[in-house]
Amino acid sequence: MRERIAGMPGGEGSEYDIYPRDLVSPYRERRFQVGEDLYRCLGIPRENKRARMAQFANNFTFFGAPLALFCTVDRRMGPPQWSDLGMYLQTVMLLLREHGLDSCAQECWAIYPETISGFLAIPPERMLFTGMAIGYEDAQAPVNQLRATRAPLAEFTEFIGI
Ligand SMILES: Cc1cc2nc3c(=O)[nH]c(=O)nc-3n(C[C@H](O)[C@H](O)[C@H](O)COP(=O)(O)O)c2cc1C
């Protein structure tokens, strides 16, 4: 991955849109905010593109985690089954917590589909969805002080009484 990132820092082209091409409000602002909050935690200013790139590159060593999983999806499946995958992955993440392990889902791996599919011999009918780093959180690390801002409940929920 070190070689791939150096030669192709933008990736090989993901097989699905990790985000919609024109992310609209309020998602656009939320995505921007969590990114800014992350880099603030790390003390990396906006102008320091090199440090931001280096931090992004840490994804590809699984942030130092000793274990990882990759999740693929049968190409014949549609959005409802992709949502099943999300539930499945969250269940894995919760079970990991139960066993004292921490994890970080990493969709960034999807920008190197050829490399990962080749390395893992993923059959052609399956598409790489995401990677996930698994290990033990360094609770002292600045990056782990980040608590993503949550939209207030009323912003995305409507309770309808009958
Ligand atoms: C499907 C999915 C993909 C993600 N991909 C990445 C990633 O590629 N790199 C990364 O650092 N974090 C990734 N994350 C982790 C989010 O950045 C993390 O969840 C976020 O910082 C906010 O934390 P929260 O889970 O408390 O909201 C991903 C999370 C999910 C659910």
Please render the helix and strand layout as text.
Blueprint: H1 2-7, H2 27-41, H3 49-57, E1 67-74, H4 79-98, E2 102-106, H5 113-120, E3 126-135, H6 153-156
Antiparallel strand pairs: 1-3, 2-3
Main attributes of the structure:
38% helix; single chain; 162 residues; three-stranded antiparallel beta sheet; 14% strand; alpha+beta; 3 strands; binds flavin mononucleotide; NADH Oxidase; globular
Q: What does the model show?
A:
- The protein is 38% helix and 14% strand.
- It is α+β, with helices and mostly antiparallel strands.
- The protein has a single domain, classed as NADH Oxidase, CATH 3.40.109.
- A 3-stranded antiparallel beta sheet has the order 1-3-2, sandwiched between helices.
- The longest helix is centred in the middle third of the chain and has 20 residues, at 79-98.
- The chain binds flavin mononucleotide.
